[in-house]
Amino acid sequence: MAAYTFIGPITQLLTMSGLPLRGPIADSELPLFENCGLLLRDKQIMAIGNYANMEEEARQVKATFILLEEPCVVLPGWIDAHTHICYAGSRAKDYALRNSGATYQEIAKKGGGIWDTVQKTREADITALTNGVIRRALRHLQNGGTTIEVKSGYGLNVEEELKMLRAIKQANRKVPVDLIPTCLAAHITPRDFESGPVEYLKLLTSELLPLVKQEGLAKRVDAFVEEGAFEPSTIRPYLKKAKDMGFQLSIHADQFSTGGSEVAVAFGALSADHLEASTDKEIKLLSESSVISMALPGASIGLGCGFTPARKILDAGGSLAIASDHNPGSAPMGDLLTQACILGAFEKLSNAEVLAGITFRAAAALDLQDRGKLQQGFLADFSIFYTPHFSEILYHQGSLKPDRVWKNGQEVFAVDNNK
Hints:
16 helices; eight-stranded parallel sheet; globular; TIM Barrel; 2 domains; alpha/beta; 37% helix; 16 strands
């Protein structure tokens, strides 16, 4: 028997429905309900409408009433479409070195960077990794995140990559958010693999990816296309085989040098992520493709470098998602809303464009058709902010956090005001 829940009265509710997947969005286009009620049926949204008019319908289906006594705003749950929250160790030393003038690449050449995290992650057992993912996912949840993509990529051999993906799978069973796993074994060529990048990628396609598919550990494959990681010509055979095996693709592209976005377009990747180094040429290429451009402002903040050219991407007709890139090296903050607000301020994005980037456009980057909007039949994933107007949320640049978070029709987080 279906369970119904009726929530309200809601001062403002932004559905994010009916907005374009690509190009600019003005705040005047935002679909806004006022003084409304939200009716849930099990895990899904059943109806949104005037609160007084919906009360009788809610009583007829014997809904549980959740009365909201303060002015509040309801928004879709955030979708963080690019994170690396499965890891062990810390890179605080790297952060200090960067702030003292060392570059990301210089630190990596001296044994820091990704390889440092690889060593720590290999030393950790699956229980420690699982607990780490759970802890970080719950922090995202408290900030309004209801869907989180999580990459491997700190194992860099068959056994350790499988360990990471299994840890993500175990964590997904224990947290009230959805974790979307991605295999990033093509992060860098491991230092202890002596045969070079081409043979390493062959190892991944012959031994790792078949097991990932067999165990159902991930449907997505990512690759770091960059100087010091994998050159475009080197990564292409790997991506072709991964795609032929049925994996969806995303690409770490144009972070320090260009070339990755062209690869993403050539292989029909769901997204090209980073793009800090993208020029007008790459922006045009992306805007004329189906690839979603993903800005990762956390990496720009962590590395002290320029942001993804988000304004240019939107004005060129591209689709822009925004993710935290939460990782131990370049983006340790992990606060998606704060980072999105900062990107918006520097790139002059409308409130609508920022919110689209962390809701339905981020859902599209993960090929998720059932979330990112509040409309009939979609998952009841949303946050409640005790504030009278939605603009206050971005105005406070991430310091205004949700008071309540719902996932799959259930309240999974609420601020304890008695503390």
